[in-house]
């Protein structure tokens, strides 16, 4: 194949044309491979033909190829530098802070639905003259059972699925030991509300091994079942609505006598009957009763002088009803998506 300097001049022209199209990294790379590639590059190809050229033309052809090679290498390098400079400028620009953009507010935590309900309940009872009392979550048998009239071998002890510690103490199964501690500590009149965590072995879709209760206690002279009913009605009307119906059903708890379970008209259907209330129109919301005289005696309070009432309810259940949360586990997963949806 004949080769002379005019071929090389054409190559150079072609190369010049192509450089003007190499405006980005990909087209520059194509250009480099086409002209300077080690395998099929044009310059390499021309150099490999040197040996087949007649000796008298070999020198001038070789010089011309070298000039082309130098021109191509120089220009490819210049283009590389230009592209690099442009790329750096672009990345600096994208990293630059645009002060005209609106700020990103820091993620602020929300109050957990259980805490919201506790606050609300405490506030309602504060208005009725109750103050908050708290107690330890690790308890002993006396405060959690015995003083509350759960004698040894009482079947109600079994029902509570207690979590015991190795030293014989236990995780309180209800907030009732706080009532005992309060009565042992103070003289009547007593009006306390005791919110807190309680623990049982249950763990399934409707039970969590840790859950929240709030318990109330009033002890004084002449406190009657009527006071209990009036207090609970006032509380339920504040917590849900004035229209909420309240009904008491006789029940049994070792620490109250008489005892009642308290139902409210279903807040989802206003008592007409729906899936949530199993079409009954009612929902069980709390347990209550007059403090058993034996419990008063255990705490050194004379039942001939004083009477009292006590009540307890599951805070988680109230939070689920209030915020339409279908599964108790959702309450304790701390999933931000749930927490963000719940506002007090
Ligand atoms: Zn209903």
List the helices and strands and how they pair.
Elements: H1 5-21, H2 25-36, H3 42-48, H4 55-95, H5 113-127, E1 131-132, E2 138-139, H6 141-144, H7 155-159, E3 170-171, H8 176-185, E4 190-199, E5 210-220, H9 225-239, E6 246-253, E7 256-265, E8 282-291, H10 293-298, E9 307-314, H11 315-323, H12 328-332, H13 336-341
Parallel strand pairs: 1-4
Antiparallel strand pairs: 2-3, 4-5, 5-9, 6-7, 7-8, 8-9
Helix pairs in contact: 1-2, 1-4, 2-4, 5-11
The protein binds zinc ion.
Would you summarize the structure shown here?
The chain has 344 residues and is of the alpha+beta class.
Give an overview of the whole structure.
With 344 residues, the chain is of the alpha+beta class. The protein folds into two domains: 5-94; 113-341, Bira Bifunctional Protein, Domain 2 (BirA Bifunctional Protein, domain 2), CATH 3.30.930. The protein has helices spanning 5-21, 25-36, 42-48, 55-95, 113-127, 141-144, 155-159, 176-185, 225-239, 293-298, 315-323, 328-332, 336-341, and strands spanning 131-132, 138-139, 170-171, 190-199, 210-220, 246-253, 256-265, 282-291, 307-314. The strands form two sheets. A seven-stranded mixed beta sheet has the order 1-4-5-9-8-7-6, with helices on both faces. Helix 1 (5-21) runs parallel beside helix 4 (55-95), helix 2 runs antiparallel to helix 4 (55-95) and helix 5 (113-127) packs across helix 11. The longest helix has 41 residues, at 55-95. Bound molecules: zinc ion (ZN). Zinc ion binds at residues 266, 268-269, 273-274, 276-277, 281.
